[in-house]
Write a structure and sequence with these properties.
By secondary structure, the protein is α/β, with parallel strands linked by helices. Helices cover 58% and strands 12% of the residues.
Protein backbone atom coordinates (compact mmCIF):
# COMPACT_ATOMS: atom_id res chain seq x y z
CA UNK A 1 0.00 0.00 0.00
CA UNK A 2 2.85 2.35 0.79
CA UNK A 3 4.47 1.65 -2.56
CA UNK A 4 1.20 2.11 -4.41
CA UNK A 5 0.42 5.30 -2.52
CA UNK A 6 3.91 6.61 -3.25
CA UNK A 7 3.50 5.75 -6.91
CA UNK A 8 0.15 7.52 -7.07
CA UNK A 9 1.55 10.57 -5.33
CA UNK A 10 4.45 10.70 -7.77
CA UNK A 11 2.01 10.28 -10.67
CA UNK A 12 -0.12 13.17 -9.39
CA UNK A 13 2.96 15.38 -9.04
CA UNK A 14 3.98 14.52 -12.60
CA UNK A 15 0.52 15.48 -13.88
CA UNK A 16 0.68 18.76 -11.98
CA UNK A 17 4.10 19.56 -13.48
CA UNK A 18 2.75 18.86 -16.97
CA UNK A 19 -0.23 21.14 -16.33
CA UNK A 20 2.08 23.90 -15.13
CA UNK A 21 4.28 23.54 -18.21
CA UNK A 22 1.20 23.57 -20.41
CA UNK A 23 -0.08 26.67 -18.57
CA UNK A 24 3.26 28.43 -19.05
CA UNK A 25 3.24 27.61 -22.75
CA UNK A 26 -0.29 28.94 -23.11
CA UNK A 27 0.68 32.04 -21.12
CA UNK A 28 3.59 32.75 -23.47
CA UNK A 29 1.37 32.34 -26.54
CA UNK A 30 -1.26 34.71 -25.13
CA UNK A 31 1.46 37.19 -24.15
CA UNK A 32 2.98 37.12 -27.63
CA UNK A 33 -0.41 37.66 -29.29
CA UNK A 34 -1.20 40.55 -26.95
CA UNK A 35 2.12 42.32 -27.61
CA UNK A 36 1.70 41.72 -31.34
CA UNK A 37 -1.81 43.23 -31.28
CA UNK A 38 -0.59 46.32 -29.37
CA UNK A 39 2.28 46.93 -31.79
CA UNK A 40 0.02 46.32 -34.79
CA UNK A 41 -2.52 48.76 -33.35
CA UNK A 42 0.14 51.44 -32.96
CA UNK A 43 1.38 50.99 -36.51
CA UNK A 44 -2.11 50.82 -37.99
CA UNK A 45 -3.68 53.71 -36.10
CA UNK A 46 -0.69 55.96 -35.62
CA UNK A 47 1.06 55.33 -38.89
CA UNK A 48 -2.02 56.16 -40.89
CA UNK A 49 -1.64 59.32 -42.90
CA UNK A 50 -3.78 62.26 -41.91
CA UNK A 51 -6.26 63.07 -44.61
CA UNK A 52 -8.48 66.02 -45.23
CA UNK A 53 -11.88 64.39 -45.52
CA UNK A 54 -15.02 66.20 -46.48
CA UNK A 55 -17.58 65.09 -43.90
CA UNK A 56 -20.83 63.66 -45.16
CA UNK A 57 -23.00 66.34 -43.65
CA UNK A 58 -26.09 66.49 -45.78
CA UNK A 59 -29.42 68.10 -45.26
CA UNK A 60 -30.63 65.17 -43.14
CA UNK A 61 -28.62 66.26 -40.09
CA UNK A 62 -30.87 66.24 -37.02
CA UNK A 63 -28.43 66.79 -34.14
CA UNK A 64 -25.49 69.04 -33.41
CA UNK A 65 -23.06 67.80 -30.73
CA UNK A 66 -20.89 70.48 -29.18
CA UNK A 67 -17.73 69.53 -27.30
CA UNK A 68 -16.74 71.86 -24.47
CA UNK A 69 -14.80 72.12 -21.22
CA UNK A 70 -17.40 72.19 -18.45
CA UNK A 71 -15.05 74.15 -16.17
CA UNK A 72 -14.47 77.23 -18.32
CA UNK A 73 -16.87 80.00 -17.26
CA UNK A 74 -18.32 82.17 -18.66
CA UNK A 75 -18.01 80.30 -21.98
CA UNK A 76 -19.22 76.94 -20.68
CA UNK A 77 -19.75 75.53 -17.19
CA UNK A 78 -22.27 73.93 -14.83
CA UNK A 79 -24.36 76.42 -12.85
CA UNK A 80 -25.85 76.13 -9.36
CA UNK A 81 -28.87 74.28 -10.76
CA UNK A 82 -26.70 71.62 -12.34
CA UNK A 83 -27.31 72.89 -15.89
CA UNK A 84 -24.61 73.48 -18.48
CA UNK A 85 -24.67 77.15 -19.40
CA UNK A 86 -22.39 79.80 -20.88
CA UNK A 87 -21.83 82.27 -23.67
CA UNK A 88 -20.72 79.70 -26.24
CA UNK A 89 -23.53 77.33 -25.33
CA UNK A 90 -26.10 80.09 -25.83
CA UNK A 91 -24.62 80.87 -29.25
CA UNK A 92 -24.69 77.20 -30.24
CA UNK A 93 -28.27 76.81 -29.01
CA UNK A 94 -29.37 79.69 -31.23
CA UNK A 95 -27.52 78.22 -34.22
CA UNK A 96 -29.29 74.89 -33.68
CA UNK A 97 -32.64 76.63 -33.36
CA UNK A 98 -32.17 78.38 -36.71
CA UNK A 99 -31.15 75.15 -38.45
CA UNK A 100 -33.71 72.88 -36.83
CA UNK A 101 -31.07 70.73 -35.12
CA UNK A 102 -31.31 69.07 -31.73
CA UNK A 103 -28.61 70.64 -29.53
CA UNK A 104 -26.45 68.10 -27.66
CA UNK A 105 -24.06 69.47 -25.00
CA UNK A 106 -21.10 67.15 -24.56
CA UNK A 107 -18.53 67.98 -21.85
CA UNK A 108 -15.11 66.57 -22.80
CA UNK A 109 -11.72 66.11 -21.19
CA UNK A 110 -9.78 69.00 -22.72
CA UNK A 111 -6.70 66.82 -23.25
CA UNK A 112 -8.85 64.40 -25.29
CA UNK A 113 -10.77 66.95 -27.34
CA UNK A 114 -9.00 66.10 -30.61
CA UNK A 115 -9.76 62.39 -30.29
CA UNK A 116 -13.38 63.24 -29.56
CA UNK A 117 -13.54 65.41 -32.69
CA UNK A 118 -11.67 63.12 -35.06
CA UNK A 119 -13.63 60.06 -33.97
CA UNK A 120 -16.93 61.82 -34.72
CA UNK A 121 -18.11 61.78 -31.09
CA UNK A 122 -18.55 65.58 -31.29
CA UNK A 123 -19.19 67.87 -34.26
CA UNK A 124 -17.02 70.78 -33.17
CA UNK A 125 -14.97 72.27 -30.34
CA UNK A 126 -16.73 75.44 -29.26
CA UNK A 127 -15.57 76.70 -25.88
CA UNK A 128 -13.30 79.72 -25.93
CA UNK A 129 -11.14 77.80 -28.40
CA UNK A 130 -8.04 79.75 -29.49
CA UNK A 131 -7.29 79.87 -33.22
CA UNK A 132 -3.73 81.24 -32.96
CA UNK A 133 -1.16 78.50 -33.40
CA UNK A 134 -3.81 75.97 -34.43
CA UNK A 135 -4.74 77.43 -37.83
CA UNK A 136 -3.73 74.31 -39.79
CA UNK A 137 -5.10 71.73 -37.37
CA UNK A 138 -8.85 72.40 -37.80
CA UNK A 139 -11.37 73.86 -40.20
CA UNK A 140 -12.24 77.18 -38.54
CA UNK A 141 -15.11 79.60 -38.37
CA UNK A 142 -14.24 83.27 -38.44
CA UNK A 143 -13.02 84.67 -35.12
CA UNK A 144 -15.79 85.95 -32.86
CA UNK A 145 -13.95 86.92 -29.64
CA UNK A 146 -10.76 88.92 -29.06
CA UNK A 147 -9.05 87.38 -26.06
CA UNK A 148 -5.97 88.10 -23.97
CA UNK A 149 -3.88 86.04 -21.59
CA UNK A 150 -3.54 87.74 -18.21
CA UNK A 151 -1.87 86.97 -14.88
CA UNK A 152 -3.79 86.58 -11.61
CA UNK A 153 -2.05 86.91 -8.22
CA UNK A 154 -3.16 87.11 -4.62
CA UNK A 155 -4.49 90.47 -3.46
CA UNK A 156 -1.54 90.94 -1.12
CA UNK A 157 1.12 89.68 -3.53
CA UNK A 158 4.21 91.81 -4.22
CA UNK A 159 3.97 90.92 -7.93
CA UNK A 160 2.99 94.13 -9.75
CA UNK A 161 4.17 93.48 -13.32
CA UNK A 162 5.21 90.59 -15.54
CA UNK A 163 8.93 91.06 -14.83
CA UNK A 164 8.21 90.39 -11.14
CA UNK A 165 7.36 86.77 -12.08
CA UNK A 166 11.07 85.99 -12.33
CA UNK A 167 11.90 83.24 -9.84
CA UNK A 168 8.20 82.55 -9.19
CA UNK A 169 6.02 79.46 -9.68
CA UNK A 170 3.33 80.02 -12.34
CA UNK A 171 0.46 77.65 -13.09
CA UNK A 172 -1.55 77.25 -16.32
CA UNK A 173 -4.20 74.86 -17.59
CA UNK A 174 -2.86 71.94 -19.63
CA UNK A 175 -3.02 72.45 -23.42
CA UNK A 176 -4.23 76.02 -22.96
CA UNK A 177 -3.49 79.27 -24.78
CA UNK A 178 -1.62 80.42 -21.67
CA UNK A 179 0.74 77.43 -21.95
CA UNK A 180 1.21 78.13 -25.66
CA UNK A 181 1.92 81.79 -24.91
CA UNK A 182 5.00 80.74 -22.92
CA UNK A 183 6.15 77.52 -24.59
CA UNK A 184 4.46 77.30 -28.00
CA UNK A 185 6.20 77.60 -31.35
CA UNK A 186 4.57 81.00 -31.92
CA UNK A 187 5.35 82.34 -28.42
CA UNK A 188 7.08 85.71 -28.44
CA UNK A 189 10.76 85.90 -27.52
CA UNK A 190 9.84 88.07 -24.52
CA UNK A 191 7.47 85.42 -23.18
CA UNK A 192 9.93 82.59 -23.80
CA UNK A 193 12.60 84.53 -21.94
CA UNK A 194 10.21 85.27 -19.07
CA UNK A 195 9.21 81.59 -18.90
CA UNK A 196 12.87 80.65 -18.66
CA UNK A 197 13.15 82.87 -15.58
CA UNK A 198 10.25 81.16 -13.75
CA UNK A 199 11.17 78.85 -10.91
CA UNK A 200 8.64 76.46 -12.43
CA UNK A 201 5.74 76.47 -14.92
CA UNK A 202 3.19 73.95 -13.69
CA UNK A 203 0.08 72.56 -15.39
CA UNK A 204 -3.28 71.66 -13.87
CA UNK A 205 -6.39 70.08 -15.36
CA UNK A 206 -8.77 72.96 -14.54
CA UNK A 207 -8.84 76.51 -13.20
CA UNK A 208 -10.45 75.55 -9.91
CA UNK A 209 -7.31 73.54 -9.11
CA UNK A 210 -5.22 76.53 -10.19
CA UNK A 211 -6.98 78.85 -7.74
CA UNK A 212 -6.71 76.26 -4.96
CA UNK A 213 -2.95 76.14 -5.53
CA UNK A 214 -2.70 79.95 -5.55
CA UNK A 215 -4.82 80.27 -2.42
CA UNK A 216 -2.73 77.64 -0.58
CA UNK A 217 0.49 79.40 -1.54
CA UNK A 218 1.98 76.52 -3.55
CA UNK A 219 2.13 78.75 -6.66
CA UNK A 220 2.65 82.48 -7.03
CA UNK A 221 0.50 83.30 -10.06
CA UNK A 222 -1.99 81.95 -12.61
CA UNK A 223 -1.94 82.77 -16.32
CA UNK A 224 -5.35 82.45 -17.97
CA UNK A 225 -7.89 83.91 -20.41
CA UNK A 226 -9.12 87.39 -19.49
CA UNK A 227 -12.80 86.46 -19.78
CA UNK A 228 -12.39 83.55 -17.39
CA UNK A 229 -10.20 85.67 -15.12
CA UNK A 230 -12.83 88.41 -14.83
CA UNK A 231 -15.49 85.83 -13.99
CA UNK A 232 -13.35 84.05 -11.38
CA UNK A 233 -12.24 87.27 -9.64
CA UNK A 234 -15.84 88.47 -9.47
CA UNK A 235 -17.00 85.15 -8.00
CA UNK A 236 -14.15 84.82 -5.49
CA UNK A 237 -14.27 88.31 -3.98
CA UNK A 238 -11.28 90.43 -3.04
CA UNK A 239 -8.77 87.62 -2.60
CA UNK A 240 -7.22 88.00 -6.07
CA UNK A 241 -6.29 90.71 -8.55
CA UNK A 242 -5.25 90.92 -12.20
CA UNK A 243 -2.01 92.44 -13.50
CA UNK A 244 -2.48 95.25 -16.01
CA UNK A 245 0.12 93.92 -18.45
CA UNK A 246 -1.08 91.27 -20.93
CA UNK A 247 0.94 88.16 -21.70
CA UNK A 248 -0.49 87.72 -25.21
CA UNK A 249 -3.55 88.30 -27.36
CA UNK A 250 -5.41 85.86 -29.58
CA UNK A 251 -8.79 85.14 -31.13
CA UNK A 252 -11.44 82.55 -30.38
CA UNK A 253 -13.11 80.53 -33.11
CA UNK A 254 -15.10 77.33 -33.60
CA UNK A 255 -12.94 74.35 -34.53
CA UNK A 256 -14.36 71.66 -36.85
CA UNK A 257 -12.70 68.47 -38.07
CA UNK A 258 -10.17 69.29 -40.76
CA UNK A 259 -12.03 69.34 -44.08
CA UNK A 260 -15.57 69.58 -42.69
CA UNK A 261 -16.32 72.85 -44.48
CA UNK A 262 -19.97 71.98 -45.10
CA UNK A 263 -20.96 71.99 -41.45
CA UNK A 264 -18.65 74.93 -40.76
CA UNK A 265 -20.35 77.00 -43.47
CA UNK A 266 -23.83 76.29 -42.10
CA UNK A 267 -22.80 77.38 -38.59
CA UNK A 268 -20.98 80.45 -39.96
CA UNK A 269 -24.02 81.50 -41.97
CA UNK A 270 -26.20 81.33 -38.85
CA UNK A 271 -23.67 83.37 -36.85
CA UNK A 272 -23.62 86.05 -39.56
CA UNK A 273 -27.42 86.20 -39.44
CA UNK A 274 -27.32 86.53 -35.65
CA UNK A 275 -24.82 89.38 -35.97
CA UNK A 276 -27.01 91.17 -38.52
CA UNK A 277 -30.24 90.96 -36.49
CA UNK A 278 -28.59 91.83 -33.14
CA UNK A 279 -29.01 88.42 -31.49
CA UNK A 280 -25.26 87.89 -31.20
CA UNK A 281 -24.76 91.18 -29.34
CA UNK A 282 -27.69 90.43 -27.00
CA UNK A 283 -26.10 87.13 -25.97
CA UNK A 284 -22.73 88.84 -25.49
CA UNK A 285 -24.37 91.51 -23.31
CA UNK A 286 -26.00 88.81 -21.17
CA UNK A 287 -22.54 87.37 -20.38
CA UNK A 288 -20.80 90.79 -20.09
CA UNK A 289 -18.55 90.12 -23.09
CA UNK A 290 -19.58 92.99 -25.38
CA UNK A 291 -16.09 94.54 -25.15
CA UNK A 292 -14.52 91.35 -26.48
CA UNK A 293 -16.68 90.45 -29.50
CA UNK A 294 -15.08 90.78 -32.93
CA UNK A 295 -17.38 88.80 -35.25
CA UNK A 296 -17.54 90.42 -38.68
CA UNK A 297 -14.62 92.77 -38.04
CA UNK A 298 -11.64 93.09 -40.37
CA UNK A 299 -8.88 90.54 -39.82
CA UNK A 300 -11.08 87.83 -38.30
CA UNK A 301 -11.30 85.51 -41.31
CA UNK A 302 -7.67 84.49 -41.93
CA UNK A 303 -8.08 80.95 -40.57
CA UNK A 304 -11.57 80.72 -42.11
CA UNK A 305 -10.23 81.38 -45.62
CA UNK A 306 -7.20 79.08 -45.48
CA UNK A 307 -7.04 75.97 -47.64
CA UNK A 308 -8.11 72.89 -45.62
CA UNK A 309 -5.42 70.70 -47.15
CA UNK A 310 -3.94 67.55 -45.68
CA UNK A 311 -1.22 67.70 -43.07
CA UNK A 312 2.35 66.77 -43.89
CA UNK A 313 2.92 63.30 -42.52
CA UNK A 314 6.15 62.40 -40.68
CA UNK A 315 7.78 58.98 -41.04
CA UNK A 316 6.38 56.61 -38.42
CA UNK A 317 9.76 55.68 -36.90
CA UNK A 318 10.81 59.31 -36.53
CA UNK A 319 7.46 60.28 -35.02
CA UNK A 320 7.55 57.29 -32.64
CA UNK A 321 11.09 58.11 -31.46
CA UNK A 322 10.23 61.79 -31.00
CA UNK A 323 7.20 61.00 -28.83
CA UNK A 324 9.12 58.45 -26.74
CA UNK A 325 11.76 61.10 -26.12
CA UNK A 326 9.12 63.61 -25.02
CA UNK A 327 7.55 61.04 -22.69
CA UNK A 328 10.82 59.93 -21.10
CA UNK A 329 10.65 62.53 -18.33
CA UNK A 330 7.15 61.38 -17.43
CA UNK A 331 8.29 57.76 -17.38
CA UNK A 332 10.96 58.64 -14.83
CA UNK A 333 8.40 60.51 -12.71
CA UNK A 334 6.06 57.48 -12.72
CA UNK A 335 8.96 55.19 -11.80
CA UNK A 336 9.89 57.43 -8.85
CA UNK A 337 6.32 57.37 -7.53
CA UNK A 338 6.25 53.58 -7.86
CA UNK A 339 9.57 52.95 -6.10
CA UNK A 340 9.09 55.38 -3.21
CA UNK A 341 5.50 54.24 -2.60
CA UNK A 342 6.58 50.61 -2.26
CA UNK A 343 9.55 51.62 -0.13
CA UNK A 344 7.31 53.31 2.45
CA UNK A 345 3.93 51.59 2.15
CA UNK A 346 5.04 47.96 2.59
CA UNK A 347 6.71 48.39 6.02
CA UNK A 348 4.00 50.86 7.06
CA UNK A 349 1.39 48.27 6.11
CA UNK A 350 3.10 45.73 8.38
CA UNK A 351 3.01 48.22 11.26
CA UNK A 352 -0.70 48.90 10.68
CA UNK A 353 -1.27 45.14 10.54
CA UNK A 354 0.36 44.71 13.95
CA UNK A 355 -1.81 47.49 15.40
CA UNK A 356 -4.89 45.94 13.77
CA UNK A 357 -4.10 42.61 15.51
CA UNK A 358 -3.17 44.21 18.84
CA UNK A 359 -4.73 43.02 22.08
CA UNK A 360 -5.70 46.62 22.84
CA UNK A 361 -9.25 47.34 21.68
CA UNK A 362 -8.46 51.05 21.30
CA UNK A 363 -5.50 50.39 19.01
CA UNK A 364 -7.51 47.88 16.99
CA UNK A 365 -10.29 50.42 16.41
CA UNK A 366 -7.81 53.13 15.41
CA UNK A 367 -6.34 50.76 12.82
CA UNK A 368 -9.82 49.75 11.61
CA UNK A 369 -10.89 53.37 11.15
CA UNK A 370 -7.67 54.19 9.29
CA UNK A 371 -8.06 51.20 6.95
CA UNK A 372 -11.74 51.97 6.41
CA UNK A 373 -11.02 55.58 5.40
CA UNK A 374 -8.10 54.70 3.13
CA UNK A 375 -9.99 51.94 1.34
CA UNK A 376 -13.36 53.69 1.34
CA UNK A 377 -12.42 57.05 -0.23
CA UNK A 378 -10.86 57.83 -3.63
CA UNK A 379 -7.09 58.03 -3.79
CA UNK A 380 -7.38 61.30 -5.71
CA UNK A 381 -9.30 62.86 -2.81
CA UNK A 382 -6.68 61.63 -0.36
CA UNK A 383 -3.93 63.27 -2.42
CA UNK A 384 -5.81 66.58 -2.38
CA UNK A 385 -6.28 66.35 1.40
CA UNK A 386 -2.59 65.65 1.99
CA UNK A 387 -1.49 68.57 -0.20
CA UNK A 388 -4.11 71.22 0.60
CA UNK A 389 -4.97 70.06 4.13
CA UNK A 390 -2.17 71.99 5.88
CA UNK A 391 -3.50 75.25 4.41
CA UNK A 392 -7.26 74.76 4.76
CA UNK A 393 -7.06 73.07 8.20
CA UNK A 394 -4.10 74.79 9.86
CA UNK A 395 -3.62 77.90 7.71
CA UNK A 396 -0.10 76.83 6.73
CA UNK A 397 1.15 77.78 3.27
CA UNK A 398 2.47 74.87 1.21
CA UNK A 399 5.41 75.28 -1.15
CA UNK A 400 5.70 73.93 -4.67
CA UNK A 401 8.42 71.54 -3.47
CA UNK A 402 5.91 69.87 -1.18
CA UNK A 403 3.97 68.63 -4.23
CA UNK A 404 6.13 65.55 -4.84
CA UNK A 405 6.28 64.72 -1.13
CA UNK A 406 2.48 64.98 -0.93
CA UNK A 407 2.16 62.52 -3.79
CA UNK A 408 4.41 59.99 -2.05
CA UNK A 409 2.72 60.49 1.34
CA UNK A 410 -0.76 60.10 -0.17
CA UNK A 411 0.13 56.99 -2.15
CA UNK A 412 2.00 55.40 0.77
CA UNK A 413 -0.83 55.95 3.25
CA UNK A 414 -3.36 54.54 0.79
CA UNK A 415 -1.43 51.42 -0.17
CA UNK A 416 -0.35 50.73 3.41
CA UNK A 417 -4.01 50.11 4.28
CA UNK A 418 -4.35 47.49 1.54
CA UNK A 419 -1.06 45.82 2.39
CA UNK A 420 -2.04 45.71 6.09
CA UNK A 421 -5.14 43.64 5.34
CA UNK A 422 -3.20 41.37 2.98
CA UNK A 423 -0.57 40.77 5.66
CA UNK A 424 -3.27 40.10 8.26
CA UNK A 425 -4.89 37.47 6.08
CA UNK A 426 -1.52 35.78 5.61
CA UNK A 427 -0.75 35.76 9.34
CA UNK A 428 -4.18 34.56 10.43
CA UNK A 429 -4.02 31.75 7.88
CA UNK A 430 -1.09 30.12 9.69
CA UNK A 431 -2.08 27.23 11.94
CA UNK A 432 -2.02 27.68 15.71
CA UNK A 433 0.22 24.65 15.95
CA UNK A 434 3.09 26.71 14.54
CA UNK A 435 2.94 29.00 17.56
CA UNK A 436 2.68 26.03 19.96
CA UNK A 437 5.67 24.31 18.38
CA UNK A 438 7.73 27.50 18.64
CA UNK A 439 6.80 27.82 22.30
CA UNK A 440 7.90 24.25 22.99
CA UNK A 441 11.22 24.98 21.29
CA UNK A 442 11.75 27.98 23.60
CA UNK A 443 11.24 30.78 21.06
CA UNK A 444 10.15 34.18 22.34
CA UNK A 445 7.14 35.92 20.75
CA UNK A 446 9.43 38.17 18.73
CA UNK A 447 11.56 35.25 17.57
CA UNK A 448 8.45 33.25 16.70
CA UNK A 449 7.11 36.03 14.52
CA UNK A 450 10.27 36.92 12.61
CA UNK A 451 11.75 33.41 12.23
CA UNK A 452 8.62 31.28 11.79
CA UNK A 453 5.44 33.28 11.13
CA UNK A 454 6.78 36.12 8.99
CA UNK A 455 8.53 33.93 6.33
CA UNK A 456 5.40 31.81 5.95
CA UNK A 457 3.22 34.92 5.76
CA UNK A 458 5.40 36.36 3.00
CA UNK A 459 5.08 33.14 1.02
CA UNK A 460 1.29 33.19 1.30
CA UNK A 461 0.70 36.85 0.41
CA UNK A 462 2.88 37.19 -2.68
CA UNK A 463 -0.03 36.70 -5.18
CA UNK A 464 -2.30 39.40 -3.67
CA UNK A 465 0.68 41.72 -3.11
CA UNK A 466 1.54 41.29 -6.79
CA UNK A 467 -1.96 42.47 -7.71
CA UNK A 468 -1.54 45.60 -5.60
CA UNK A 469 1.89 46.34 -7.04
CA UNK A 470 0.53 46.08 -10.58
CA UNK A 471 -2.37 48.36 -9.65
CA UNK A 472 0.13 50.87 -8.25
CA UNK A 473 1.88 51.10 -11.62
CA UNK A 474 -1.39 52.26 -13.21
CA UNK A 475 -2.47 54.43 -10.27
CA UNK A 476 0.61 56.63 -10.68
CA UNK A 477 -1.43 58.58 -13.26
CA UNK A 478 -3.53 60.00 -10.41
CA UNK A 479 -0.58 62.17 -9.34
CA UNK A 480 -1.79 64.80 -11.82
CA UNK A 481 -4.48 65.68 -9.27
CA UNK A 482 -1.67 67.63 -7.58
CA UNK A 483 -0.30 69.05 -10.86
CA UNK A 484 2.58 66.54 -10.72
CA UNK A 485 3.22 65.58 -14.34
CA UNK A 486 3.82 61.85 -14.64
CA UNK A 487 3.90 59.70 -17.76
CA UNK A 488 0.22 59.28 -18.62
CA UNK A 489 -0.53 62.96 -18.05
CA UNK A 490 2.37 63.88 -20.30
CA UNK A 491 1.06 61.41 -22.89
CA UNK A 492 -2.35 63.13 -22.86
CA UNK A 493 -0.72 66.52 -23.25
CA UNK A 494 1.42 65.35 -26.17
CA UNK A 495 -1.62 63.67 -27.74
CA UNK A 496 -3.52 66.95 -27.50
CA UNK A 497 -0.64 68.94 -28.97
CA UNK A 498 -0.09 66.46 -31.80
CA UNK A 499 -3.82 65.80 -32.40
CA UNK A 500 -2.88 62.12 -32.43
CA UNK A 501 -3.69 59.03 -30.40
CA UNK A 502 -0.16 57.68 -30.85
CA UNK A 503 1.21 59.02 -27.50
CA UNK A 504 -1.55 57.19 -25.63
CA UNK A 505 -0.71 53.92 -27.38
CA UNK A 506 2.93 54.40 -26.42
CA UNK A 507 1.88 55.13 -22.83
CA UNK A 508 -0.20 51.95 -22.82
CA UNK A 509 2.78 49.98 -24.12
CA UNK A 510 4.97 51.48 -21.38
CA UNK A 511 2.50 50.46 -18.66
CA UNK A 512 2.19 46.97 -20.11
CA UNK A 513 5.97 46.42 -20.29
CA UNK A 514 6.38 47.87 -16.79
CA UNK A 515 3.71 45.56 -15.38
CA UNK A 516 5.08 42.59 -17.33
CA UNK A 517 8.49 43.11 -15.71
CA UNK A 518 6.86 43.50 -12.28
CA UNK A 519 4.87 40.29 -12.78
CA UNK A 520 8.00 38.37 -13.84
CA UNK A 521 9.96 39.58 -10.81
CA UNK A 522 7.14 38.70 -8.43
CA UNK A 523 6.73 35.30 -10.09
CA UNK A 524 10.44 34.61 -9.63
CA UNK A 525 10.18 35.56 -5.95
CA UNK A 526 7.14 33.31 -5.58
CA UNK A 527 9.06 30.35 -7.03
CA UNK A 528 11.93 30.97 -4.63
CA UNK A 529 9.47 30.80 -1.75
CA UNK A 530 8.13 27.36 -2.74
CA UNK A 531 10.06 25.47 -0.06
CA UNK A 532 8.09 22.23 -0.27
CA UNK A 533 8.31 21.60 -4.05
Amino acid sequence: MITISGFRAEEMRSEMRQKRLHGKGLYRVVLFLLVLSVVTGIITVCGRKDRSVQAADGEDRTTFTLGFDAEFPPYGYKDDDGEYVGFDLDLAAEVCKRNGWEFVKQPVDWDSKDMELNSGAIDCIWNGFTINGREKEYTWSTAYIDNSQVVIVGAGSDIKKLSDLSGKVVVVQADSSALAAFTGEDASEENKKLCGEFEDLQQVSDYNSAFMNLEAGSVDAICMDIGVANYQIKKRGDAFRMLEERVSSEQYGIGFKLGNTELRDKVQESLNEMLADGTFEEIAKKWELTDCICLGQEGTDAAYLQDAGSKKDEPFVKKFADIVGRLSGGMLASLMIFVFTLLFSMPLGLLVCMVRMSKSAVLRWIAKIYISIMRGTPLMLQLLVVFFGPYYVFGMSVSARFRFYAVIIGFSLNYAAYFAEIYRSGIEGIAVGQYEAASVLGYTRVQTFWKIIFPQMVKRVIPPVTNEVITLVKDTSLAFALAYTEMFTMAKQVAAAEASIMPLFIAGLFYYIFNFVVAMVMEAIEKKMQYYR
